[in-house]
């Protein structure tokens, strides 16, 4: 298990000054930059695509943690790799061939992540853990920032931590959705070592980002 990494979701940033916002969270201590890509089809919301992501790639050297909520996904993997993704995470539920999607990401030389929705059991990871670098547990239904953490997902985080330890592989366990300082503590206790947060990082504007990030780490 790694020391906890904080990945602010730029879905909650002020889009009118996205570059400044990415620089601000970098300087405030973000470990990764979480990029939520939504297509209005797999999820009922539309965010941004590879061109917008590329426009802010040069602002920071921090890894871009790209969460693709799109279906189909395979046809867009090359574009996100070229736009500067470091880790590309795809939904188990986006189908039709999660194993093929993960193979494709690895073939692009990127870290590969798999994400499961709140209604999807941990067991779905059985035949994927030998190839992923990251597992992302959604603690809200994907599509929007600002939702409430679904408590039942804590049990799933613990179960996946056990699965990862058994696999003997170095796999990050990330949680995404409704994570504030109180839920962050419980996620870490359950075995998470990476936390995505939108609302709880961007709340209060740039002068609050460093304290917000520190609070999620439990500092
Ligand atoms: O992927 C998603 C939502 O689908 C997330 O990354 C959210 O954008 C996190 O925002 P908060 O729940 O922390 O406000
Ligand atoms: Fe996300």
From TrEMBL:
Protein's UniProt name: Ribulose-phosphate 3-epimerase
Stored SUPFAM superfamilies: Ribulose-phoshate binding barrel
Keywords for this protein: Carbohydrate metabolism, Cobalt, Isomerase, Manganese, Metal-binding, Zinc
Catalytic activity: D-ribulose 5-phosphate = D-xylulose 5-phosphate
EC number: 5.1.3.1
Source species: Sphingomonas ginsenosidivorax
PROSITE patterns assigned to the protein according to its UniProt record, in alphabetical order: RIBUL_P_3_EPIMER_1 (PS01085), RIBUL_P_3_EPIMER_2 (PS01086)
Active site as annotated: 36 (proton acceptor), 176 (proton donor)
């Amino acid at each position: 298990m790694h020391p906890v990494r904080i990945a602010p979701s730029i879905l909650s940033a002020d889009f009118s000054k996205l570059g400044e916002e990415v620089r601000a969270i970098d300087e405030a201590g973000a470990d990764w930059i979480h990029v939520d890509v939504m297509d209005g089809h797999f999820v009922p919301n539309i965010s941004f695509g590879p061109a917008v992501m590329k426009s802010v790639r040069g602002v920071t050297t921090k890894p871009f943690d790209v969460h693709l909520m799109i279906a189909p996904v395979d046809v867009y993997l090359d574009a996100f790799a070229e736009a500067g993704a470091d880790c590309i995470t795809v939904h188990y539920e986006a189908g039709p061939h999660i194993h093929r999607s993960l193979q494709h990401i690895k073939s692009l030389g990127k870290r590969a992540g798999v994400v499961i929705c709140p209604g999807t059991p941990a067991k779905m990871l059985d035949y994927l853990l030998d190839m992923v670098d990251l597992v992302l547990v959604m603690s809200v239904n994907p599509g929007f920032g600002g939702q409430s953490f679904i408590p039942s997902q804590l049990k799933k985080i613990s179960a996946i931590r056990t699965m990862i330890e058994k696999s003997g592989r170095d796999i990050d366990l990330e949680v995404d959705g409704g994570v504030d300082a109180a839920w962050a503590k419980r996620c870490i206790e359950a075995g998470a070592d990476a936390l995505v947060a939108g609302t709880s990082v961007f709340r209060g504007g740039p002068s609050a980002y460093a304290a917000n990030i520190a609070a999620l780490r439990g500092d």
